[in-house]
Amino acid sequence: MLVAGIKSRPVYTGLTIQPNARRHIFALEGEGAKALLNQQPALDETALSRSEILYVARGSQGTGLDEALRRLGADMFFTAPTIATLLFRLKGSLTTARMGTRLYLSGTEGFIGQAMLVALDYGMDHASVITEHRGSLARRVQCVHCKGITDDVTTSPFNCSHCGLRLLVRDHYSRRLAAFQGVNIDAEEPGSAPDPEELFL
Asked: Which residues contact 80 (CB under 8 A, 6 or more apart)?
C-alpha cells in the first residue's frame, strides 16, 4: 500500500553506534543481527565492554548469526527462544538501566514496534531509540473492529484471525499498539472483497 505522507508511519534511521553512551543495549531479531555486525568497525573494546546483546533468531535460524554476534565479545549476550522471552529480558535490562544508556533495535517492523513499547513503558522517548528495519516486510495488524492483533500479515486484504472479517491493511500505524490498522473492506457489500495481494513480503 505505502501511501506517501502518512505521518504515523515509523521511520528507521539505521544503526549507528553512539560512542559516548555509558551502556549499549542491542535488541535484535533475525536479520537484524546483520545491522549490528555491519557496525563492527565502531565496536571497539570499550564499546563492547559496555554492551548487552539480546537476540532471537526467528527467520534466520541455522545461518550462524547468533554465533557471529557471540564472537563480537560483548559484556553480555543472550539468545532468546521467542520474541516474548527477549522482551521479558529487555524489561529486566531497562529496569536497571541508568542515564546514558542507549537502546538499539533491529529486525522486522513487528519486532521493533513491540520492543519500542517496552522502551516507552520505561520512560524512553521513541525518538532516542536507534532503529533499523531488517528482514520481512510482514506487518503486525490490529483489527479496528474486534481489536484483535494478527502478526506476520503479508497480504491485503486478509481475514482477521480473531473475528474473521476481511481487512484492508492501512499504512496508518499506532505506536501505542505497535500495529498497523486493518479495516473491513466489504462492510457495505459483504463478499465483494478483492482477492488478496502479496504486498508485504
From this structure: 54, 55, 56, 86, 89
